[in-house]
Structure formats: C-alpha cells, structure tokens
C-alpha cells in the first residue's frame, strides 16, 4: 500500500490537491463520483444511513480500488458516523470475464 499511496500523493500534488493523507482520501471520494474516472462501482453493504460502496477508479494507467459510502438521505456519510478506511486502498488489474445467461424463447 505504501507504493500506491506515494503514487496517489504525487498525482494529487500535480493536480493541486495537496499531498497529505486526508487530501488523498478526499480526492478518492471525489473521483468515486466522477464518471470519467470510475472503472467499476458496486454497492457491497447497505446500512440505515449509508451504502458501503466498492469503487475502482482509473488514474493514468493504474486502477485504484477502495471502499467509500453513499448516503441514503440528505446528510453526508461522515455526519452519520461513517469513516474512510485507508486500509481498503489497493491497486487492481482489470480482467475480462465472459458470462452466459439463458433467456426464455
């Protein structure tokens, strides 16, 4: 994780977003809502005040995955007790999988 955090730190600094850990976390949460960066997004858990979401964003040629949250109401996740978990940040590689489904004639 140390190497990916350094990559994110340098990318954030180059984009004028700052280089502190919290700057990186805030940037990742912003990218999780930006369709230009999202490679994959899936709700993995549902709670009363927020949905726990796994997101993979593409930054340059790297895929960075992490857990974030979307609220189910007007408040932001932090207001409802959710906290970003930096240990969920990891680098991923895309793998295409073919799925066959069967439709009734």
Sum up the structure in keywords.
23% helix, 105 residues, globular, four-stranded antiparallel sheet, single chain, alpha+beta
Report on the architecture of this protein.
- It is a single chain.
- The protein is α+β, with helices and mostly antiparallel strands and 105 residues long.
- The protein has helices at residues 2-14, 21-31; strands at 38-46, 50-59, 62-71, 90-92.
- A four-stranded antiparallel beta sheet has the order 1-2-3-4.
- The N and C termini lie far apart (49 Å).
- The model has no long low-confidence stretch (mean pLDDT 93).
**Tally of alpha and pi helices:** 2
Strand order of the largest sheet: 1-2-3-4
Question: Which residues sit in consecutive blocks of at least 5 with pLDDT less than 50?
Answer: none
Taking all Cα atoms into account, the compactness measure Rg is 16 Å
Strand percent estimate: 25-35%
Mean pLDDT comes to 93
Number of strands: 4
* Helix coverage percent: 10-25%
Distance between the termini: 49 Å
> What is the total domain count?
1
Biggest beta-sheet profile? 4 strands, antiparallel
Label the overall shape.
globular
Structural class by secondary-structure content = alpha+beta
Q: Could you give the order of the helices and strands?
A: HHEEEE
How would you sum up this structure in a few lines?
With 105 residues, this protein is of the alpha+beta class.
């Amino acid at each position: 994780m140390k190497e990916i955090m350094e990559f994110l730190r340098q990318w954030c600094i180059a984009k004028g977003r700052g280089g502190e850990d919290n700057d990186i976390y805030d940037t990742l949460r912003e990218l999780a809502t930006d369709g230009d960066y999202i490679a994959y997004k899936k709700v993995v858990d549902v709670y009363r005040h927020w949905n726990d979401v796994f997101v993979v964003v593409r930054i340059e040629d790297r895929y960075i995955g992490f857990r974030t949250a979307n609220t189910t109401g007007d408040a932001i996740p932090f207001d409802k007790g959710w906290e970003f978990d930096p240990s969920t940040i990891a680098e991923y590689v895309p793998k295409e999988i073919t799925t066959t489904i069967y439709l009734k004639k």
